[in-house]
């Protein structure tokens, strides 16, 4: 049975209608254009090397503004849609039924155990919840609401207006081929502070969610199939630690 929990709410951002390129938001394009023109103007002065460097920077920034793409972000495989949302998705097959795995994810208070970048999720009512993540200058919280709840198939949510970081997500549960269990696909979209530039910095500093999501799914698979998460952290012998404690 399909349960659309918020028929009057705006539709969640489309995960499948995205570009494989990293697209600049209109604001970013404007900033890039202004900076590019400024660099080109400054390149008319100074020494030969200075003019060459500023000219190259100016051409690069102006080109990004004109095309609306960030080649560095594209090279790093950072995907964004035309709304400026950074898109993250990954999938894994777990040897359990869709119904069993859906039940684990549907308990929202379990999410910090599944997605380690979350500090807590507090359920406020049937639809709304408050999410908290640790930030560089303190915890950051926002409210989110469920936008779809299809038992054994799909859970979707999105942040409510006013969130510090606008985001949405969905988890899909599909029977895996060959009766191997369930394919879990997680699709996330978030508005990175600083647009594509912020996303590039996050990727280069190891804070971009795609690697975190991969780690989370691998840990979830091992916990569900083995009952614990093998880790060598803190062990000189490299043997697995029971209980999934790191």
Automatic annotation (TrEMBL):
Domain of life: Bacteria
Coenzyme Q-binding protein COQ10 START domain segment(s): 94-217
Transmembrane segments: none
Region (Disordered): 1-23, 224-246
InterPro entries per record: COQ10_START, ORF3, START-like_dom_sf
One Pfam assignment: Polyketide_cyc
PANTHER family according to UniProt: POLYKETIDE CYCLASE/DEHYDRASE AND LIPID TRANSPORT SUPERFAMILY PROTEIN, POLYKETIDE CYCLASE_DEHYDRASE AND LIPID TRANSPORT SUPERFAMILY PROTEIN
Protein name, UniProt field: Coenzyme Q-binding protein COQ10 START domain-containing protein
């Amino acid at each position: 049975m399909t349960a659309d929990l918020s028929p009057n709410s705006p539709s969640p951002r489309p995960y499948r209608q995205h570009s494989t390129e990293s697209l600049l938001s209109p604001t970013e394009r404007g900033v890039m254009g202004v900076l590019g023109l400024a660099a080109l103007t400054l390149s008319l002065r100074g020494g030969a090397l200075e003019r060459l460097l500023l000219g190259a920077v100016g051409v690069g920034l102006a080109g990004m503004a004109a095309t609306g793409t960030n080649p560095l972000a594209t090279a790093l495989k950072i995907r964004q849609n035309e709304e400026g949302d950074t898109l993250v998705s990954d999938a894994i097959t777990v040897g359990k039924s869709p119904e069993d795995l859906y039940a684990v994810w549907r308990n929202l208070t379990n999410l910090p155990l599944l997605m380690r970048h979350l500090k807590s999720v507090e359920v406020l009512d049937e639809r709304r919840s408050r999410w908290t993540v640790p930030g560089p200058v303190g915890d950051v919280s926002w409210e989110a609401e469920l936008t779809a709840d299809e038992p054994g198939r799909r859970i979707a949510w999105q942040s409510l207006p006013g969130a510090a970081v606008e985001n949405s997500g969905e988890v899909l549960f599909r029977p895996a081929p060959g009766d191997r269990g369930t394919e879990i696909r997680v699709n996330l979209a978030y508005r990175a502070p600083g647009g594509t530039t912020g996303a590039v910095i996050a990727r280069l500093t190891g804070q971009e969610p795609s690697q975190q999501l991969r780690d989370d799914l691998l840990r979830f698979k091992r916990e569900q199939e083995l009952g614990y998460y093998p880790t060598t952290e803190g062990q000189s012998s490299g043997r697995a630690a029971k209980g999934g404690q790191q």
